[in-house]
Amino acid sequence: MKRLHRPVLESVVRSPRRLPWGLLAVVGVAVVVVQWIAWSASQLWVTPESAEYLTLAANIAGGLDFSHPYAQYRTPGYPLMLAGVFRVFQADSAAGLLFLQHALVAGCALLTAGIAWTAWAHRGLTTVAGILGAGSLHLIGYANAVSPVALYAFAFTLCLFLLVRYHACGRIGALLGASVAAGVAGLTSPLGWILPPLCLATGIHREARTARRREVRAPGGAGTFVGAVLAAMLPAAALMVPFWLHGQRTFGRFPPAVLCGTALFHRTVAVERLNTAQSPDLAELKKRFAQAQADGWIAADAEFADQAGRLADTIRMWQVTGGSVPEAMSAVTGAGWDLALLNPLHVPKQTFGHVTGSLLTPDQVYLRQPNGERLPPLKPLAIYDFSAMDEASTPAFARYLVMHGRPGRASAIWAAFTQLYHTRFESRRGYLGLGGTPYAEWNFVLLLGVVLALLRRKRAIWGLLLIAAVGHLAASSFVHGALPRNAAAVHPILHVFEALAVLEILRAAAAVPAILLFKWSTRRGVNPRMVL
Hints:
The relative contact order is 0.14. This protein is globular. With about 525 residues, the protein is mainly alpha-helical. The two termini are about 15 Å apart. Mean pLDDT is about 75; it is low at about 1-15, about 215-220, about 370-390 and about 430-435. α8 runs antiparallel to α9 (about 195-215) and α14 (about 310-320) crosses α15 (about 325-340). The protein is built from 23 helices and no strands. It has helices at about 20-40, 50-65, 75-90, 95-120, 125-135, 135-145, 150-170, 170-190, 195-215, 225-250, 255-270, 280-295, 305-310, 310-320, 325-340, 345-360, 395-400, 410-425, 440-455, 460-480, 485, 490-525, 530.
């Protein structure tokens, strides 16, 4: 008997080697419309953390100076981009930065569609994944902020797109490009350090599979095993190792140890409140905190965990008590590693909860004011007061970036949309659960997409995407705790899984009427083919 229906993704599969440029152009139109609305409705805003990136950028733009103390715990990729914006746009740097970061987020959406096509070569999956990426508030919100999230998400997504292309098509150029993107991601955020090993593992896996199947290498293919290993590692190392050597030579500390130590300090002190352990560096920090309170630099009712958990506040606390920035960094790094090693079971145990909290809690960056309160509806985003950026308010910085913006024509549309999202879709807790808000149901759609992907063909590509997402979230949550902005970069991957689940749900819904009609016709002795 003729089948009544078949799953959407069991239809004729096209070749993933050639990207569907016409389809990507259609997706691109949707991406441009959404980004224009968000860009024209937004102002550039900064956080206290932005001051450190802007200070580094001003030094770089002024004389390629990478020796500022902030460079001990801030990677140079985003300050380099800011310095380039300062040089190119000068007095219009605020508008230039907004445009560039929205372009990077638009690129993430198009790369999401490209990943979906390469993973399955299905037009419906590609379209839905691209549209989901176009409307990702997690990334659009940070396109309006002085924050490395947009740049890092683009580099992260580009690396995965090229890895998926390499795995599907076997072109060594794609692996080389993925390694370059991994190096850029590693210079933008320490979380990007998981990507070079992922490039290496992908190269080894594909070469081993090729050797096992005894396939003949096609022109422009993956090349030899050694060539794949070198292509996966050398470009990323060429970008990241000079930064590490510079940090060791300038500050006397290896940057990976410092960056991991400071992040662990934030998690163990501010998040886990594990500040009662015996650590010489922690004892010195508490001593400095008490002295700063006694001198009136810190409020009398302030708590150590809240104040010291913010690295910039810790450094200022150390400076006002007669210490230097390198000494503060040494104490923070040492305390972070001490607290993690003194609590070896607690930190890994809580990491899983932080992973789910980071992933399943929507980031409200697009709804926040400087004091942390949500904006009332139909009002544009506010910006931080310039006094919060004392370190960045230098002539070299001020002449480039004007820290204000004017809301555009689409302000009412965007504000109403974000308010609707907040009231209808926001999840109060980062748990898997059915009911409460539509956002909770969307989590189940994501989980369904992961299960469907692992049950279907091309499991290696789906597995690559899943490993990248889980590895990124695990690394972020291990050192930072639950931080939704660190989960923003994996949302392009999640949109591919979500698109798969959405298509399967629509296919199942469309099949229900056909099945009911078939049952009705057979009960009455009607030929089903005459009905269908």
